[in-house]
Amino acid sequence: MNLKIEKNKSISSLIQFTFLVSTIGPMMRFISAGSVNLSALLSVTLPILVFGIILYSGVISKKLLIYALPIIIMSIMSFGWDIINIFEGDYILQNTSFVLMGFASFIFLPTIISLEQLLLVIDLSIKRSSYLYIFILTYIMLTYDQDPASTQIGVLFFCYHLYKFINHRNKLSLLILFVIFVETFILDSKIISLAELTILSIVFGAMSLKRPLLVAFIVTLFATSIYIYIMNSGFLDRISTGDDRLTLLGYSINTSGRMNSWSLTFFSSLEHLWFGNGHSVPDALQGVPGWNHPHNDYLRFFHQLGLVGLFLWLFFIFRILQIYKKVKKKIEFLIDPDAYRQHQILLFTTAFYFLGILIMMLTDNSIVYSYVTYPLGILIGYMVKLKNDPYSQMQYNAN
Q1: CB-based contacts of 348, cutoff 8 Å, min separation 6
Q2: Domain range for 356
Q3: Is residue 324 in a domain?
Q4: Any domain includes 399
Q5: What is the 3-state secondary structure (H, E, C) of the chain?
Q6: Predicted confidence (pLDDT) per residue in 247-296, tens digit
Q7: CA–CA separation, 132 vs 311, rounded Å?
Q8: How many domains in the chain?
Q9: Lowest-pLDDT range, 29-43, 269-283, 313-327?
Q10: Could you read off the pLDDT of 112-150 as tens digits, one per residue?
Q11: What is the distance between the alpha carbons of residues 187 and 196, in angstroms, rounded to a whole number?
Q12: Does residue 322 fall inside a structural domain?
């Protein structure tokens, strides 16, 4: 019994640590020892540590393995390409390999401890980390010496506090929502703002018939803030000018060079259709500052791992949707109202954070940011734990 308690404490501490370092991820990219920054170091060492714990605990079974199998295969494919490229004289390892391995490892990690302990530690970790994130985001906004895209973990906290405000009328959550959304918008993190706006639209659309006054108040608050900022910041000039534009409905949108990158990457992918060529971008972009990634993770998988890798990722999305539907239905039979509320908030946060990542992957490198991917792995692992949890361990209504 004592060993089990100590194991729960150790895993809980590791989960809290992962959320903490993911929150300060943007800052760690600029703390380095030689040519290696702290973020990259943790991206590699954390998966190795977690993988070792999982092997030692013996939790991996065929039943659990199936959930992370597409990611594991993608990681093996990526490592295989790394080895081939090394023999060909390219000694630069792709961070895709390590982050995918870490992602898969973190899916298994939550299955080691009890579901009750897991609920508490994830909720506490997200809550505390969100407070820290507000200070980090404000610092980045005021100094602007970091890459705004590095703040993508904020979508997780945005989803968490959106649920708390809508369902519990938590005023602090409304303030956090407002700060995250407005400061992200001021930072010109367009794809993050788009993800948050999409989540808001879906949620408000679903609840508008039930709570029209609340929806009207929040929409007015956010829309007024955006309007004031746009009219006084030169935002329209920045978003509509540039040497590479996308014309949409008669408007020119600055894609910051992404259209050229996407075109080169797509046509290069066709030359290695099935299994890719092991690099995230074509030879023409390798070594070009700022373009060692295609700024579209779907194209990254297509170019690096071919149609096989892209299919595996899409299949993984499909499997997660299946798991979500099953656990969403499962908790409807819970007798304990507190347990039901706890599961509701984590399932809501997991689903919409995953949706936010899928949106951000369209124009950024979300899947290879460990501080974005590892927390997602923990949340998916929570859903896997919930799905496989025996009915005897949870109080369900037999009816």
Answers
A1: 159, 163
A2: 2-393
A3: yes
A4: no
A5: CHHHHHHHHHHHHHHHHHHHHHHCHHHHCCCEECCEEHHHHHHHHHHHHHHHHHHHHCCCCHHHHHHHHHHHHHHHHHHHHHHHHHHCCCCCCCHHHHHHHHHHHHHHHHHHCCHHHHHHHHHHHHHHHHHHHHHHHHHHHHHCCCCHHHHCCHHHHHHHHHHHHHHHCCHHHHHHHHHHHHHHHHCCCHHHHHHHHHHHHHHHHHHCCCCHHHHHHHHHHHHHHHHHHHHHHCHHHHHHCCCCEEEECCEEEECCCHHHHHHHHHHHHHHHCCCCCCCCCCCCCCCCCCCCCCCCHHHHHHHHHHHHHHHHHHHHHHHHHHHHHHHHHHHHHECCHHHHHHHHHHHHHHHHHHHHHHHHCCCCCHHHCHHHHHHHHHHHHHHHHHHHCCHHHCCECCC
A6: 433 434 445 566 777 777 778 778 888 988 877 766 666 666 566 677 78
A7: 37
A8: 1
A9: 29-43
A10: 888 888 999 999 999 999 999 998 888 877 876 556 667
A11: 14
A12: yes
Q: Residue 162: what residue type?
A: L
**Residue 398 within any structural domain of the chain:** no
Q: Using N-to-C axis directions, what is the helix angle for 95-108 and 62-87, rounded to 10°?
A: 170
The set of residues, in sequence order, having a beta carbon less than 8 Å from that of 391 and lying 6+ positions away, is none
The pTM is what? 0.85
